[in-house]
TrEMBL record:
Organism the protein comes from: Cucumis melo (Muskmelon)
Superkingdom classification of source: Eukaryota
Entry annotated with the keyword Cell membrane: no
Underlying gene: LOC103495602
Keyword terms, alphabetized: Glycoprotein, Signal
Record-level Gene Ontology MF annotations: copper ion binding; oxidoreductase activity
Official protein name in the record: L-ascorbate oxidase homolog
Residue intervals of the Plastocyanin-like domain: 35-148, 161-298, 378-515
Signal sequence region: 1-24
Gene3D superfamilies linked to this entry: Cupredoxins - blue copper proteins
One matching Pfam family: Cu-oxidase_2
Length: 543
């Protein structure tokens, strides 16, 4: 056994013993990941990729509701590194969220062990590197959470499952793209699209005629919404980011940045090969890539052009988004029906309006929320909050509504009370579609429409059966409103899923606070927490 492997084993054993008192008797799964650079050719051009255990994309995480995941990440890059877990709620445990506001980066040549519990969650998600535009080089992978065997699912068990990680891609290395942003410019248009890390016809998904398969589709790209479709086949939508849906049938589905969907596809066509198609949405130049759906008894390969899809039509996409509904009688991760939570009958305690803008600050392109363009502090905000380090951030450093003032740079943190119930309105006065994500929470998408949001729009909200998810789109010159239970104490990132916008300031942190110092509300700082910035040398108070 190598020295590193021995240290991994010791670390994992120590953390299991340390955290078993917190997480109880739910099963554990163990992962050891080595993060390296490696040559990749996804669009036929050699570039430097970020690999996990030599893989691009990285290995898939498979878990069951409530399981504990011990993920030991060794950073063999030449720069600091973090992994975040898109859609994993980290209940009471923002210490494991893997963004710079909560975690110190893993230094080169060192490791950090994440201890996650997928508490009360099911569904389709992905993980990704959260620092320094590393996402443009890879380091992402699928993350699926199956229901417990005692919980019925609202459809027959599929014959098989496929994870589809799709999105735009640049042929430039991530360091070159980062230099473009640091220089004050936006990213150019992407060079192509990938499906599971490969370009045109680079993947084959083999099915047996007459059987039904589940496809878990995520948009892991940087800047572009996509449309997903399969030649000659319809898709039955069954799950969106952990919520079982009404089972509507679609010929194609828009998947915005950071979003995940599960569909059932039945191999009910003549036995041959068919195109799986991904194309860009709302772009001046439409990019397209394909994979192959291969019947095991296929009599013919694909031929002719792949089927076309929607391109710039916003109304089409808006109507599809409004068609997403929660299955009120189906179980979620728990045995009670999803409809037993009456989100529309809960009193709103706090309204937050978040308006995006694209200002020029100090001669450089920036992006902002409510006139504030986020800049990272010298110390992770969660550590600064825990150790009461002054001068790192200020609560209320971003207003909770648009002010119309000139844009400025600030480490923006908004205050919120545990067990509150927030109405959050994402406002987009720009002419590009946007996508927003909230860490640590799911929210109910109660409304979306064009124009300026006003309180009168509340009369149009869906207060009965809308979808619950963690990432939502906002169409150009439009708004999207969500209801969000503030049921998870911690420091949580709210961000644009357009990674250039996120990098250049279109994000903030929401501090959900409980005055009760109890493990019931929040887990203590992990014993292996990395220290950096002004937290170096600080230790938790003795009990």
């Amino acid at each position: 056994m190598s020295e590193n492997s021995f240290l991994y084993s010791l670390t994992s054993l120590f953390l299991v013993l340390s955290f078993s008192c917190i997480y109880g008797e739910d099963p554990y799964r163990f992962f050891t990941w080595n993060i390296t650079y490696g040559d990749i050719w996804p669009l036929g051009v050699k570039q430097q990729g970020i690999l996990i255990n030599g893989q691009f994309p990285g290995p898939q995480i498979e878990a069951v509701t409530n399981e504990n995941l011990i993920i030991n990440v060794f950073n063999s890059l030449d720069e600091p590194f973090l992994i975040s877990w898109n859609g994993i709620q980290q209940r009471r445990n923002s210490w494991q969220d893997g963004v710079y506001g909560t975690n110190c980066p893993i230094p080169p040549g060192q490791n950090f062990t994440y201890v996650l519990q997928v508490k009360d969650q099911i569904g389709s998600y992905f993980y990704f590197p959260s620092l320094a535009l590393h996402k443009a080089a890879g380091g992402f992978g699928g993350f699926k959470i199956q229901s417990r065997s005692i919980i019925p699912i609202p459809f027959p068990t599929p014959a098989g499952e496929f994870t589809v990680l799709a999105g735009d891609w640049y042929s430039k290395n991530h360091t070159d793209l980062r230099a473009i942003l640091d220089g004050g410019s936006d990213l150019p248009s992407p060079d192509g699209l990938l499906i599971n890390g490969r370009g045109l016809n680079g993947n084959t998904f083999t099915v047996e005629q007459g059987k039904t398969y589940r496809l878990r589709i995520s948009n892991v790209g940087l800047t572009t919404a996509i449309n997903f479709r399969i030649q000659g086949h319809k898709m039955l939508l069954v799950e969106v980011e952990g919520t079982h849906t009404l089972q509507n049938t679609y010929e194609s589905i828009d998947v915005h940045l950071g979003q995940s969907y599960s569909v059932l596809v039945t191999a009910d066509q003549p036995p041959q090969d068919y195109y799986i198609v991904v194309s860009t949405r709302f772009t001046s130049q439409i990019l397209t890539t394909t994979s192959i759906l291969h019947y095991s008894n296929s009599a013919a390969s694909v031929s002719g052009p792949p089927p076309g899809g929607p391109t710039i039509q916003i109304d089409w996409s808006l109507e599809q988004a409004r068609s997403l509904r929660r299955n009120l009688t189906a179980n979620g991760p728990r045995p009670n029906p999803q409809g037993s939570y009456h989100y529309g009958l809960i009193n709103v305690t706090h309204t937050i309006r978040l308006q995006s803008t694209a200002p020029i600050i100090n001669g450089k392109q920036r992006y902002a929320v409510n006139s504030v363009s986020f800049i990272p502090a010298d110390t992770p905000l969660k550590l600064a909050d825990y150790f009461k380090i002054s001068g790192v951030f200020s609560l209320g450093s971003i207003p909770d509504y648009p002010t119309g003032s000139g844009a400025y740079l600030q480490t923006s943190v908004m205050a919120a009370d545990f067990r509150g119930y927030a109405e959050v309105v994402f406002e987009n006065p720009e002419d590009v579609v946007q996508s927003w994500h909230v860490d640590g929470h799911n929210f109910f998408v109660v409304g979306m429409d064009g124009g300026q949001w006003t309180p009168a729009n509340r009369l149009t909200y869906n207060l009965r059966d809308t979808i619950s998810r963690c990432t939502v789109q906002v169409y150009p010159k439009s708004w999207t409103a969500v209801y969000m239970p503030l049921d998870n104490v911690g420091m949580w990132n709210i961000r644009s899923e357009n990674w250039a916008r996120q990098y250049l300031g279109q994000q903030l942190y929401l501090r959900v606070y409980s005055p009760v110092n109890s493990w019931r509300d929040e887990y203590p700082i992990p014993s292996n927490a990395l220290k950096c910035g002004r937290a170096i040398g600080l230790n938790p108070p003795s009990l």
